Mannitol 2-dehydrogenase (Pacificibacter maritimus), 502 residues
Amino acid sequence: MDKLMNAYVTKHPPLTLSNAHLTQLPAEVSRPQYDRNALTPGIVHIGLGNFHRGHQAWYLHRLMQDGLALDWAIIGAGVRQYDAAMRDKLLAQDCLTTLIELDPSGSSAEVVGSMIDYLPIEEGNAALIAQMTKPEIRIVATTVTEGGYFIDPATKGFDGAHPDILHDVENPATPKTAFGAIVAALRVRRDEGRGPFTCMCCDNLLGNGDIMRQTVVSLARLTDPALADWINTECTFPNSMVDCIVPATGPNELALVQGFGIDDQAPVTHENFRQWVIEDAFCAGRPDWDCSGATFTDDVHSYEAMKIRILNGGHQVIAVPGEILSVETIAGCMEHDLIGPFFTKVASTEIAPHVEAVPNMAPETYVELIQSRFSNPKIIDTTRRVAFDGSSRQPGFIVPSIRDGLRAGTPIDGLVLVQAMWARMCAGTREDGSQIEANDPFWAKLQTTALAAKSDPKVWIDMRQIYGDLAENDQFSALFTASLKTIWDRGVAATLQDYLDR
């Protein structure tokens, strides 16, 4: 397939992606077979990053290819100014996206057309609120990153003191946050008898629907307790698990899509694997996503736990040492003589024992699946991207496994070593002397603490927003102190080798 595409491009300049050019694309490129002009909206999705366009939008597109769900098209939205650049790119190409599957045996391209508009990015979010008040909008979905749900790091409850939340409380008609806009729209729908919609979180959070319910209902309660009760009773917040490795788009990806004969300013590359497991709780109806491969179940939690602990946790296990040792990609980490074996040992002996099996998948088999997916050389997923926002990902993906190990009396040495390496990474330099640029919303605080921990390791684990009361556990504290001291004295490679030799 790759050779065919290269031959095509030598004879034909890339076509600008648009509705008008769909029929002129190379025959090998799949494209919408449905009439996009006949689509009507049913979903507003807030957070139009690569993951949404390579995952949820694809599942809907596949239904549309079969003549289904034509009244469920996606209206894109964002609430941050940086979303405006993506909006401009997508509107310029009729909200089409080229998805490029990167399989070790070859690549293929598919143009997805399930999104039909992208709302303006504006202060006060008037256009977003107005769109969500329309009765045809029956689902409002979000991908706003794990740290975007205003969770108090200490209590795990709602952070009502966050400045953005305080703004929304003072200005409920002109909110700053996505959740303030959702509350404003639901107020109109309640008052005008238009009924509720489903709020669907698509971020990597355990119990993500429950967390979204907490955020939306808690924010509403600060201004209108009766509205909060109505939302809590009438709206639904299904839990879900989403899975597909989708790297960031850069020059390589832009060149790759050109190789398929397409000029797409916002292509998405992805692995040859997708999974979407959803609780069937939709108050205003839903597309038949199960017909395009999604799984509806009452036991989302087990799927979530397996994926978050082993895949998302595994990403942190390898990205942190990879960043310190200047290994640029996740596939490169898996090829590394120490980091790849480190993942296998930690995932198999310290994470998987605390993960329940799901239908047709034992934890040990899932570790092997993730090992293969991480090793895909065609997925140019950077360690920097994966290591981003450790202040959310470490407590969300790694710390729960440490707690399980402490309770069960099983090994935690490797997981604690990950924490020590994260502290070393946050000191801001790699072992080759190069600088690690800020890579966390709380980078300044983390860097100050990491440098202090070089001489006093306990200051790192005293960050209660990350570790809670773990610093008071003698086993955890002693392991962390010894690991961090060894890292600073002998380096990450030697410390990893010591662990692997045990």
In short: Residues 2-298 form a domain with the Rossmann fold fold (CATH 3.40.50.720). The longest strand covers residues 97-103. The chain has two domains: 2-298, 301-501.
